[in-house]
Amino acid sequence: MERYLKKLKPYMQKYLAERYSPEEAGKRWEKIVSLDEKWLKEDGNLGGWANAMSSFMMLCYAMCALYEALDRNFTREDFQTFAKESMADTFKFLGHFDMNRLEEKKFLMKAAYKLMAMYKKKADRKRGGAWGNTWKLRINPQGQAVGIAYSLDTCPLYEFAQKYDYLDFMPNFCAMDPYVASRFHAKLIRHNILSDGDPRCDYWYVGDKSDAALSDIGSK
Question: What angle do CA 1, 19, 178 make, to 5 degrees?
């Protein structure tokens, strides 16, 4: 079983057990496992451990399999509740950081961009090969002076959603991004999302008390 699905297994089985008989819950769990294995085989793992962003694809497989096993009866509220419960430890860890303080340390921001540049170089080299259709990244294309900014010109999650008719479900993943940012006292300023029909996904993380955050209107 893929490691991400293995991590989510107890939460998914609990969710199923609360809604179905033991026999029915078991059948639906097997459907989740089967779909996850099918997509891993047919659509790949984007390089697995070697690709730091591949876990997002694994999460997509797992959650879309759950969505399918629930007969596609899984609302945005259901998604957010499930995500917050199953990823509580991660969110708690993020709470130890404060973007308002971090962005004041210029050396940390430079280090973050340096790591991002190293990742981009590797992704550009491996895209189309070992990393499949992994994200196409541009670093701070608007030249933001504070925070961390980047754009994604492609998204394998969005392409997966197009391929398997999950475009209705895709916005649930995107809607979690601002919540994740809030866990480390950041604001995600984003006015373009591929799943909304925009040409790219923009990400600009700033401290939630910064002028940029307080003046932002209409982020998705």
Answer: 70
Angle subtended at Cα 89 by Cα 86 and Cα 92, rounded to the nearest 5 degrees: 125
Residues in the chain predicted with pLDDT less than 50, given as ranges, are: none
Instruction: Indicate the length of the chain as a whole number.
Output: 220
Tokens of 59: 């999460």
Name the pTM for this structure: 0.94
User: Could you tell me which of 74, 61, 75, 34 has the C-alpha nearest to residue 163?
Assistant: 61
Pairwise CA distance, residues 119 & 113, whole Å:
10
Query: Alpha-carbon distance 141 to 25, whole Å?
Result: 47
Q: Say which DSSP state 196 is in.
A: G
SS3 at position 17: helix
Q: Most distant CA pair in the chain: distance in Å?
A: 56
- Tell the residue number behind the tokens 């992994």, with chain if given: 134
Burial class (CB in 10 A: 0-12, 13-18, 19+), 63: buried
User: Within 10 Å of residue 83's Cβ, how many Cβ atoms?
Assistant: 22
Predicted pLDDT of residue 1: 86
The torsion defined by the Cα of 43, 83, 87 and 54, in degrees rounded to 10, comes to 20
